[in-house]
Each structure stands twice: as structure tokens, then as C-alpha cells.
Amino acid sequence: MNERKSYPMYFVFGALILYVVLCVIPGVIGVGYSFTDWSSYSDTINFVGLDNFATVFSPEENYLRYLSNTMIFTVFTTFCKSIIGLALAVLLTKKIKGLNIHRAIMYMPAVLSTLIVGMIFKSILNPQSGLLNAFLRSAGLGSLALKWLTDSKIAFWSVMFVDIWKGIGYIMTIFIAGIMAISPVYYEAAEIDGATSWQRFKSITMPLLMPTVAVTTVLNVLYGLKVFDIVYALTNGGPGYATEVLYTGVYKEFSKGRYAVGTTLSSVMFIFMIIVGFFMIRMMTKEEVEE
Amino acid sequence: MKRFFMVVLAAAMLASSVACAQTTAATTKAAATDAATTDAATTKAAETEAEATEAVKQDITITYMVSQDWLQDAEIELGAKFAEETGIKVDYQVIPSDQYTNLLSTKINAGECADIYGSQGGQFDIVSQLNVVKNAVDLSGEAWSSTVDPLAAAELSVDGKLYGQPLGDLSSAWAIAYNTKIFAANNLEIPTTFAEFMAVCEAIKGVGITPVYECVSDGWHHVLWFPEMGAAFEAGEPGLIDNLNSNKTTFASSPVMKQSLDQIKEMVDNGYWGEDYMSNAYADAAKNFAGGEYAMVVANQGFGAEVEAVGGELKASDVGYFVIPLVDNQILNVNPVGPSRFIYSGSENIDAAKQYLAYIAQPENLQYLIDNVSKYNTLPFSGVQDKYSDIIKTFYSTYTEHGTVLQTTVKYVNPQWMEIGKEMTAMILGDESSDDVLKNIDKNRADQAAAAKDENWAG
Fold first, then answer.
1. For residue B381, which of B390, B396, B370 has the smallest C-alpha distance?
2. Annotation: CATH topology of A66-286
3. ipTM for the predicted complex
4. CA dist., res. A214 & res. A74, Å (int)
5. In chain A, whose CA is at the least distance from the CA of B131?
6. CB–CB contact B217 A238 (8 Å)
């Protein structure tokens, strides 16, 4: 490369300084506070070593449950959003009538505020007066009219369903962009060779879509790990602790004035997200096919 | 050419932002002129006293953050009149009750709270939880402060300084409101023991009516069954309250507390709370009660008026009350602590907020609240006329022994009200035992005590 045409290193300093000041330093300070007894009850902050981490990982506390809920949420919503999003993307890249309208309808939930979606679904899923149970009862399916958000056995699945409904459109749009970027030449050649639709999908679409799959998976996983708003809006972690996730836990610790425990939970999640994100990107980009 | 367009575009952006600023300034100026004109017109027609009021008219909006059940329509109407008289508008920020405590604590801890905020009082909690000395304004100098009921004032004061203004009726006890018609039709008497209460529930269930209306999703209401029994706990285990406060005993080691939780679970397991207790809301309690679908609900003594206000056949005089008979309780539970208004010390509108509190505390406005909020029978201020009905007077006179509730007498209970709610929900759903609930309450108390550096928990 011609060195005179490349930008000098100091061009990056402005952005780097902003990034360090606004993101890195607060992050590091946050991790630092995990080792203290910082709380709203006292003006002094003392070093307490790994006490907060012992609290977070103690089996007597609920935090491990929050952690496992977060993992279940992440894995399940990522899987469903990817599969359904991909299926919809494949459908909506075909030549069908009203294509853009279909795409817009599918994308619409993604532009709605999560809190509004939460309030709407809280009403729809109300066991007595909700639209869903009213429909089920009127269709003679009263036995399927469940307590969607108040039964501890199914509340978390209801929350995940709403999140999947909201998030599919966004993932679908990314997949559509990925599929549109695949040259039609491959499909024409495969058709001439007599390949079926499934073979074309399996041998052309999927391999060439792997970089997009990597991106959507990372986005879904990182979103899932830091989920907060949809849980807060729909159940606020209830009934009991059935739908608590890590970030609702952080929020509640902070509201109780136990800042140090809150930052500890946040730090644990931060480190976990870095590790997961790093390995996922490495794993998923290893088998990418260059077009 | 491209560069030319960029320059033109940048100039246009700059011009438009300047224009916007000018428009805003112009609008403000126009509004100010209008206001001035209106003021002048009003002043001419008004008496000297009104002139003085006009002189302090301000274009300020104060924010008031409050839990949904604590703000009444009548107060909003008073707020509108207050705005007319002073020019100070009140922006009511009403928060769902299950989210309120967390949100308030977060806002206070983050240093960005509303000008006025609602919170429970309590001499222990306003120090350990709200830290009112730091986060609230001293209201001792306000003219209305001397009119607050002394018992209520004591629960809102630190070192003799008053920090809050009670916002609701504190005279009411959380008791079981019952439909006298259903009781009469089924020859049922007021139960005096838990066994009798269960028999009453069974009889009501037998005629196809849900015995108890409960609303767990609100997060706070179902908790009442437990701490409101404070006096009964003390009667069952004398010295319990003092020992809890001095950390000589724990909730988990109290048989009477465990018994009360087990009895709650028994009620639910027997189906006496019906099918929809997890999704019901307290806001719908009067409507559902008036519809005759439920026979009883834990409520205060304004509930009868609320039921009558629904407009059904049931009148306020058809709603009777008896104390919650868990652990065979027959002591009337009283509580001088309730939701109150506090002015945030970091507010930029402290004077305006003080004016709002002073306005609400004017005797005619307090009376307006009592007369127009169906669940209020009185307010804890001198110079107001109560509206107790005969059935309420009968209820109060039935129980000669009175005792204070647990959340007021025992430290570090009230701040974890919503947490207790979660624990009790987990117990009701079978995810936890009553022992777990009590242990977790102890743990939360210890956490708060440690954070507050309470000497009794040291070491």
C-alpha cells in the first residue's frame, strides 16, 4: 500500500480519546467498584476484596437463578429469531405480490418501543380480559387459555415469545440484505444443473450467508445477555422471581442502594459477554465462504 | 460544486437552528406578553389580596412522582386550581405501583428525582431508606406543619424536623371488608378465629362466590396479610418486637410468624383466593366486589364508599369490616405511617413545591379531598371534618384492643415490602417454603442493617 495515501495514525486519536473517556474508563471504574462496599448508606468506600463476587455466586442467593434465566433467554430467543427470521427472509426475497408491504409488516414490531410492546402484550395476555384468552375461549379452546404472565411455569416463555415477536423483523431485514447480496449467477447455474430448492438453499444460500448468520447471532446473543426492558415491562421479574434476569437484578440492587453488588453483577456479565462474543465471532467466521 | 453544496447546506442548518432559537424566544416573549396582558386585566378586577397572589404568579412546572394508588382525581383537580392561582403547573408522574419503590430509590440514588416525590413515612425508614436529611427539604417552618397530627408528624420527623406531608387517610386500618348481604344470605357471622374464617370461606365458595379478592400482580397488596399482623405476633410472643429490633431474635425463629404464612398458603391452596388472584389489580377491587363476584377483600375503611361509587346495587352501608383473623387475631391494627409527600432537596423549584404542599394543606382543600375521595374518611390534619359512617364506627368500637403494625414497629421491614411480596408470591406458587420467606426477610434486614452500620447487627 502506498503509505502516503493512507491516513496517519494521529487521525484516530480524537475518536480514541472519546471512546476511552466515555466507555473504557467508566467500565474499568465499574469493575473496580466491584471490590468495594460502595452503597448509598455510607459516604465512605472500603475495599472488600472478593466479597461481592462471593455474594453473587453464592447458592443461597437468587443471582445464579437470574444468570440461568438470562442464559435460557439468550439461547432460546437467538435460536428462534435466527430460524424464523431466516425463513421469513427467504420467503420475502421471492418474487411475491406486495413484497415491500409484507416486509414492512414484519419489520414493524422492531420500530415500536419495548415499553409500549410490553404494555400492549400485558393487556393481550391478561388471563381474564386479554385478547388471546378471549379468542381461545370463543374458539372453544378454553383449556388453552392459560395465565400467560402470572403462572410461574409459563411466564418466562411468554416473555421470550413477545421478545421473539418483536425481534424477528430486525433479524429478517439483515438476512434479506445478506440474501440479496448473493449473486444470482450461482442460483442460475444450480438450476441448470437441476438442483432442487432445498439443495440451492443448503449449498448456496446458507454457506454464502454465514457471515450474516455470524453477525445476527452475535447481535442476538449480546442482546439476550443484556435483556432488561421487555422483562421489566411485562413482568418486572415476577411472579416471585420466575422471570428475573441479570439486568433486572442489577437494577434492583442499584435501587436498593447496594451499588457495589450491582456493579459486581454488571462486571460478571461484562466479562462473560466479552468472552462469549470473542469466541463466537472466531468460531463463526472460521468457516465463512468467500464469494 | 460538491463543496459549494456542502457549504450551502451547512449555512442552511446554521440558519435554521438560529431561526428555531429566535422562534422559541419570540414565542416565549409572546407568551410572556399574553400572560402580562392577562395578569393586568385580572389585577384590575381583583381585590388587594388577589393582587398579591398575581404578583407571585410564576411560569414554573413542578414534577410530582407518585405511585398509582396514591394520587387521587380530587388532588389533580386541586392541582389545576393551584396552577390557575399561582401559575405553577404540576406535572404528575404516576408510576405503576409494582415498579414505584425501585424507580424512586434509583432516581434518588442517581440524584435526579422529581421536585416532589411520594414515599412511605416511618421514623426508621425515612432515615435508612430515604435519608431525608440529605434527600428531602425540612418543612418544619411551613405554616401547615403545626396542623399535622402529632403521631403522623413523629413518623415523618428526624431530630424534631418535619420532612414529609401525609397524603392519605391514616386512620383506616387494613382489615377485611366483607359483603354483608352475602354473609346474611348464608347465615354467616364475623369470624373471630382462623378456623372460623376458613369455615366462612368454605361456605362462600360453596355457593359459587370467590371468598377473597386478592391481587398479587400489584406486588404490595397481598403482603398486607403478613405485617399487618404485627400486634398479633407480639401478643403471641411477648417481647418479639423489641428482640427483633435489637437483633436478639429473627423472623425465621418465630413460630407465630411462620404460622401466619402457612395459613395464607392454606387459604390459597383451598381456592379461597379464586383463580385470578395473580393477575387481579387492586384498582379493580371495588368494581369486582360491587359485582358480587367476591365476598371479602383486605381493604381500609374507605372501601365501602368506593364500592358505592361504582354505581351498583351495593351501598357503603353494605360493606362491613373485621380484623384479619390469621393466628386468631382480634387486635385492631393501627398505623400512623402512610404514604407522604416529600420535596427533593436537589430540586430547582423548592419554593414552588412548598407552595403546592401549602396549598394542599389549606383546610378547605383538605376537606375537599376528604369529601371527594371516597376512600378517605379523614386526613391527619387538625381542622377537618371526618365522614365516618355508622358501620365504620361499629367496626372501630368492636375491637377494644389496638396494636401497631409490624412495618412501623420493626426496623428494616417496610423498605423490603415489595421484596416480601416477591417472597410471598414464590411461597404461594410453591417455589419457596414459609421458612425460606422468613429467612430471606432476615437476610434482607441484615443487609440493610449492615449497610446502615446498625450497632445491633455489628459483629
1. B370
2. MetI-like fold (1.10.3720)
3. 0.72
4. 15
5. A41
6. yes
